[in-house]
């Protein structure tokens, strides 16, 4: 950092906040996706596909009962597959739960520490024209609300 501490303030804050937003989303994605389908899931899907294919070939009135039985069997296999997938999601969730319960407190503590650490240092500047809509009467008030006493700012910029 420079003597005034501002050279790395904005990139550091950006990187830390981006990481704090990315990590929980990554963990949630891992819980939901679960990676490649297992052999058991592939086998169940193949069985369901085969049963439905056989049922579709039996289109004669004399084979209606057999086709209906195959469709019911396929529906039962689909329910079994759904239960199996739900169980896999619960298993994956239990793996990540210890980490997920610490995410919010770590975020809050990090944001608090960033605020304390960079309290004296400006992390950016805003053009005077952007503060202009506050009006001439409110402009000094807006400048005080948005600005730190950083010392080295120019007259046409408001440091934040």
TrEMBL record:
Pfam families hit by this protein: CHD5
One GO term of the biological process aspect: tail-anchored membrane protein insertion into ER membrane
InterPro entries: Get1
Source taxon at top rank: Eukaryota
Protein name: Uncharacterized protein
């Amino acid at each position: 950092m420079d003597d005034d501490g501002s050279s790395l303030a904005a990139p550091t804050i950006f990187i830390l906040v981006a990481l704090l937003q990315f990590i929980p989303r990554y963990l949630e994605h891992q819980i939901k996706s679960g990676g490649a389908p297992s052999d058991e899931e592939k086998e169940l899907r193949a069985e369901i596909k085969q049963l439905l294919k056989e049922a579709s070939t039996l289109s004669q009135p004399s084979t209606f009962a057999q086709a209906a039985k195959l469709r019911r069997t396929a529906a039962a296999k689909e329910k079994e597959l759904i239960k199996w997938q739900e169980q896999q999601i619960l298993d994956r969730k239990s793996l990540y739960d210890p980490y997920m319960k610490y995410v919010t407190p770590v975020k809050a503590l990090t944001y608090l520490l960033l605020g304390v650490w960079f309290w004296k240092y400006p992390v950016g500047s805003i053009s005077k024209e952007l503060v202009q809509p506050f009006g001439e009467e409110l402009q000094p008030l807006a400048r005080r609300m948005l600005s730190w006493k950083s010392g080295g700012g120019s007259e046409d910029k408001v440091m934040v």
